[in-house]
Design a protein that fits this description.
Number of helices: 19
CATH class of the largest domain: Alpha Beta
Radius of gyration: 27 Å
Structural class: alpha/beta
Shape: elongated
Number of strands: 25
Helix content: 25-40%
Bound molecules: beta-D-galactopyranose
CATH topology of the largest domain: TIM Barrel
Strand order of the largest sheet: 1-2-3-4-5-8-9-10
CATH architecture of the largest domain: Alpha-Beta Barrel
Number of domains: 2
CATH superfamily of the largest domain: Glycosidases
Length: 630
Amino acid sequence: MWGVATASHQIEGGNTNNWSVFEPRSKSQQLSGEACDHWNRRSEDIELIHNLGVSHYRFSIEWSRLVPEPGVWDADAAQWYSDLVDELLAKGLQPMATLHHFTQPVWWEERGGFEREENIQDWVDFSTRMFALLSDRVEWWCTINEPAVFTTMGYVLGEFPPGVRSFKRARNVALNMMRAHARCYQSLKAMDRGKHCQIGLVKNINLFDPYRRWNPVHWGQALLLNGMFNTCWLKGIQTGRFKPPSALRSQKVEGLKGSSDFIGVNYYTHLLATPFMPTKVEIDPLIRPWEQRTDFRYPMYAEGLRRALDMVKGLNLPIIVTECGVADDDDDMRPEHVRRHLHITAEAIADGLDVRGFYHWSLMDNFEWAEGYEQRFGLYHVDFSTQKRTLKNGGKQFADIAKAHRTPQVVIMAGGLGTRLGEMTERKPKSLIEVNGQPILTHILDWARKQGCLNALVLTGHLGEQFDGFTHPGMAVSFCREPSPLGTGGALWNARHLLEERFLLLWGDDLHPIQYRPLVERHEQSGAPLTMTVTQKHSAVNLHHHDGVLQNYDKAKPTKEFNGYEAGTSVVEKSAVLAHGKEGVWSWEETIYPALGGKAAVHLDDTTFWDMGTPERLALLEEFLNKTSL
Ligand code: GAL
């Protein structure tokens, strides 16, 4: 997942909640006011996300809008979030929703918020309602964002509402937040789509290091803070218990054990510990002499991201970097910050850590809580007097990297009727024939999705109405019909305005379960207009390849040099379609492959492809799917 993240109160504007009440008393005393006016600029902002070339967007749902008064449900607000989700999906962007990101309704804060266990159910009720509304379209859910930050800032440092400084109250809030997370997770999981959705906690991993490495007192302090801030929550999920040093005594929290399908990691920095650390944010934190301060005054420390990822790996859960970014007013650190943190993430993945995604904080400059508008975290600059958004260099850097590394769009030729399948496909496109209880198209999309494809374009041929209502949860699927049968080439030409610059091309009646990444990498290295997968284990041959390059393709008349068979999955540059395509009826393989002799790259992979051309082969595919779970 390549993503960007925001939170409701920081961008929407016009909110009334615990924060809007607290703002006049905050460190900056700035009011969130109209913030980025995102509530009125939703579509424009979605366009900004789309332009970054990312695949995912993490946002939070503002509880105070949905339930402004006890027992009141604002249907318009609910509709707004539902429309947000639809608009994202229409742009091929997958939503990730956070149910609590620091803010809560005023009436609930007045009742004591997370200080009272009996209040928890109100938030769980709100969460289940939103889940019921959106879980048919939103697969990724975060329960609580950074509970340890909420607790520390609100109840120890007094920088966040309610502005309290009391360890005792902080402890109690931490315990209730654990209960709330656990109850929310269990309630959502028990709902209709619970099993299909991924629900997890978002944890800020703040690293604590001894200021003087030779000083055991500094070490002690660092370990203590790490225990209170980080381990407490990670161990909580692992063991189901709230433990010292955060708790006074170890205590079981119902439903907490295993209550996360993934772990969200927000990573920003490390803090150097001494027993005399400032407990007010105004005082500069200590840094190493070689470190560079961000505008927030804490240092840029990219290596720490790896340590944060290593810290959560013991949970054995998929890891998602749900936030990572930098406050940098003049954008002179951001490009480097982006490169370093992505580099570290890539290294972690290469070393086997199960990191599934990276969300940059933040899409655009926004209301940075107690700091107000001075701390600018955006990939887009926002001029708060005009609401004009402008892409920064750091934003361009992130977009360039994301675009270059995303799994390409998948395009499926799904139109053909099967002449050899008899009555079954007289009127029904082959791709809709059910195998093992589901259309083969669904199996193909399942595989593509597993390989990281989130965007599919289905070329439906001229019987497009038969695809009406076809969806594939977790993927943005669009369709392109033909006025009359156009052949495989004509179908692509007909859809050329919907093709991305580079796409994966699959056949709608073939299941070809290969790893896409090596194929895409081979294509990137080759610089070819097209890279095809070739198997050398098929009973027939239809091409000659040499040194990784296609020499000659002939479907009908193989020569004795022929040494491979085109197996069905290729990577194509749109420019190849534009260069060789034409109006009318024509065959892709019979036109393009011969034309690209000496040019197209070959990716060797002997994985069996399962086509369903004849009743016998269909039976083999059925048997394969029966035995294998993709
Ligand atoms: C996180 C928080 C975000 C954002 C960011 C930058 O702790 O979840 O809302 O403000 O820090 O400081």
